[in-house]
Specification:
Length: 266
């Protein structure tokens, strides 16, 4: 899904109005936050959890317990700002389902609509149900449906190959969470620390393997630096360590040969 299409879908299908607030996560593609801003609403960033890379239900519940004020008009307001919290937008990061059922249950207690950012998660399931079907609305990507089942199986096979390969190197591969089936849209690994991450990025790119760090956290970007943000220890930990590795439909896994030829240089 292109950033423009994602932005359009999110903008059209949530109830955010001018000067409202929308809860989302700091670890996300920038189009998620930009769509909120385009509505003249304010993003509020709540931490993710490490296993899913998605919005953490416990942190969401804690935020709403501290700041959520459900008034007689049936709307929830932020005690810190006085603004209406008009939506919550969890993201299924890299195609891995977040704990969306828990997010929806928490938001319902505060009458907050949930708009799933499932733009990366076509073909991903949580508890046997396709993501995008849990919330009140969803942004879901499109694909060439006639070949989609082949593409999905190809990508899941690639993920299994990556898992086996990196397990031998004691490097953590980001796998589908518990109770989930992921489309593995974007494959990722977790390095030991930021220094190790940067060394891996330099090594991969110098050897013709396109690797990149995970997105800069939204609250670190200039336009969102002043947005309300909870303690985001997990998101920061992930930003320092996560690297995306080649994720296209598989023809060959080029990183294997490059690694073994140069592993002493890392």
């Amino acid at each position: 899904m292109t950033a423009v299409r994602r932005h359009y879908i999110l903008h059209c299908y949530w109830p955010a109005g001018s000067d409202d607030e929308v809860i989302t996560q700091p670890l996300t593609f920038v189009a998620t936050a930009n769509a909120i801003s385009y509505c003249k609403a304010h993003p509020v960033f709540v931490d993710v959890d490490r296993p899913t890379l998605g919005l953490d239900p416990e942190q969401l519940a804690e935020f709403l317990k501290q700041y959520g004020n459900l008034k007689a008009d049936g709307c929830c307001y932020n005690l810190a700002t006085g603004r209406r919290i008009s939506a919550c937008v969890p993201m299924h990061t890299f195609g891995h389902p977040c704990r969306i059922d828990q997010v929806v249950d928490i938001c319902r207690k505060y009458c907050i609509p949930v708009v799933e950012d499932a733009a990366e998660a076509l073909g991903s399931f949580y508890c046997g149900r396709h993501v995008g079907l849990f919330g009140d609305n969803a942004a879901v990507g499109c694909a060439q449906m006639e070949s989609f089942s082949h593409v999905l199986e190809n990508k899941r096979q690639t993920a299994r190959m990556y898992y086996d390969f990196f397990q031998k190197l004691d490097i953590s591969f980001v796998s589908e969470p518990e109770n989930a089936q992921s489309n593995y849209l974007l494959n990722a690994i977790v390095l030991k620390d930021r220094q190790n991450r940067d060394q891996f990025l330099e090594f991969g790119n110098q050897n013709g393997v396109q690797v990149r760090p995970v997105w800069t956290l939204m609250n670190h970007l200039p336009m969102y630096r002043n947005c309300q943000t909870t303690v985001i220890d997990n998101a920061q930990w992930l930003e320092d360590r996560v690297v995306n590795i080649p994720s296209s439909v598989r023809k060959e896994i080029s990183i294997r040969g490059a690694y073994y030829a140069n592993k002493d240089k890392i």
